[in-house]
Structures are given as structure tokens and as C-alpha cells.
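Morning!

This is the sequence you dropped in the shared folder:
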Amino acid sequence: MKVSGDWIERPETQRVCRLLTAGRHRALFVGGCVRNALLGAPVTDIDIATDARPERVLELAEAEGLKAVATGADHGTVTVVAGGHPHEITTFRRDVETFGRHAVVAFSDDIREDAARRDFTMNALYALPDGTVVDPLGVGLTDLEARHVRFVGDAETRIREDYLRILRFFRFTAWYGDPDAGFDPAALAAIAETVEGLAELSAERVGAELKKLLAAPDPVNAVAVMARTGALSQVLPGATPLLLGPLVHAEETAGVPPDPVRRLAALGAGEAEGRALRLSKREMRQLSLLQSLMGSRSDPAELGYRHGAETARDALLLQAAARGAPLPEGALEEARTAATQRFPVTARDLMPAYEGPALGDKLAELERRWIASGFRLTREELLAEATHRP
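The structure's back. C-alpha cells below.
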């Protein structure tokens, strides 16, 4: 079996492989690029495994005239840039000691040792520069073809090496698992034994992993099982997956792409949870706003006019999920149209007839009437109304 694609045929990438093989070393693509190529998914990052030591990779790259940086030399990683594309080259490794995210590793000449320290069997697949797939563990291809996400070796051991692998398991299942095949029972049993270890992870790592999970086309089953194992409450206390399914259905029906912040709002995450997950300031503002709008009675036009098309769209989807009903026909288009409108009356137009609080009240009243008219009332009509003081 071979992998193919523009990424592997790129001359610059083949040049990086040749600098290793010409130096009498092995060069094998590994991990996500191989997995995604086999699945027909986009390949973004290129990782290469080799038996060459980091200093040797640096030496070979320099001789080839390529930029090389020891981005993780202690763990055997050198990034070589060719044609503007980064290639992460990592020496075969075996774990000597592991403690959370960090590990003491020893370099190896054995690809099987390198494969044995990886997280999931579908990530322990390699490919030669010509695309020929290498499956050192003998189960990676079978598991990938079956969309079976399972840990390499003993699941509990893999998790205790890095508790983030609990969240990665659910993320990979959401993205690559067979939705009809269920979840690996050995993995779920191991997660039940280790779930409290999630408390040891940094908020940044948890937040980043959750957003990747919630960006999956349909993470509903994964999040539901997360809740049953206790993993969801560990990383997002008080969260409930009940609205996530209706939201994903509403998104699919409306043809709206996934958005992690919108889906966090459906799980019940608010400002406090956003801070705990170290969301960006923009994400925090959006999450807080969506939570406030979920119960709003504003119609699509007002939502679009006051908050913009995207926020209105997200609020309408969340409201539909909460009601358990489809979006009103034309609601998203109404919100998009409203977002382009500009109120034609200014405070200066109402002066000096109105001033102080009365000026603000009258301006707000006219704006409400203008919105209610479907933005049809003209400036002249609005000002004519303003002259009829009560």
C-alpha cells in the first residue's frame, strides 16, 4: 500500500528525504501526514522519522544549504525548512522514564521501538519517501481501515504517561472513529481508572484540545461518552451535552460549519469556564455574548442589526437547539441582511428639539420603530415622526 498526494511529491520534501538517505540514514514520514493521506484528509504538517541523531541531521541539512533549527534537540527533533515548508525530523526514540507531558527518552535505531511509544495505533504508521506504507506494530493499518481508535499497548500506561491523551482519545474518535462501531472498551476502562489525572493538566493544553474536539464535524457521541466517563466534568465542571446534539443538527441543516465557541456555549460554558480554559479575549467575549443571547426574545433582524451576522447566526442556532425546533425559515438570511443596515438618524438630527436624556430616549425609540418596520422607514419619515412630540 502507498500514500500519495501533492505533499509527498513536492520537490522540496523529497529533497529533505534525500539528504537523509544520501547520508546512509532512514527517512520515513510518520503520524498525521500518513494517517490523513490514507484517509483522504488534508495533510498540513510533515513529520519525518529517522535513525540519524539530531546533530547529524543538522550537519546534513547545513551541507545541503537548508535552514535547520534544533527545535527539540533533547527529544531528537530538528526542523528543516525547504521551499518555505517546515519538516520536523525526529530521531527514533524509546521511553526510558515518563512523567506527565515530559519524558526521558533514549535514541534508538529500531523503528518498532519508536512506534511502540506513540499514542494510538493509527498514529504509528510510517511511509517511505516513495509512499510505501510501513506498519511496524502490524495493527495500525487494520485499525485505521476500521476507524478503530485505540491506544498502542496498554491503554492505562499510555494515559499515565500524559493525561492529555484522555482528551486526545475523544478528539481522535470524533474526527477519525467509526460512529457506528462504538468506543474501544479497553480505552474506556483505562480512562475510568485515570480520569482524575486530568486535573494535573494546564488550562492551556485542556482548552486547546477541547477546541480541536469541538471543531470536529460531529463530536456528539464523543462528548456524550466523555460525560459518562467523568472526563467532561473534570475539564468543564457543570457542563452538560444535552444541547450539543440539537445544535449540531441545526448546524448541519443550515449548512453552517462547526465552531468550538458556539459549541462551548451549548455545553453551558460561560465566562468563568472560558477563563479556566484560557480562551482568548475575543473568544471570551463571544462566549459570554452567546450565553446572554441564548434566551433572548429578539427576532433575527434585531439580532443581526445589533450584533452582526455571525453572532446572530450563532445565537439563532443555539436558540433553535434550546427549543428543540428547526430554525424559522429565512431567519439566517434576515439576520445577514439586517447586519448590513445603518440607522439613518443621528442625535444631531433631533437637536435642539430634544436634549439630555430625552434625546437618547427618542433616538432609541426611533431606532426600534425603524427595526420593526423591516428597516423600511426613511430618514425623512422618522424625523417627521419625531416632530410629533407627546
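Headline: The chain has four domains: 1-145, 150-235, 236-341, 344-386.

More detail when I'm at my desk.
O.
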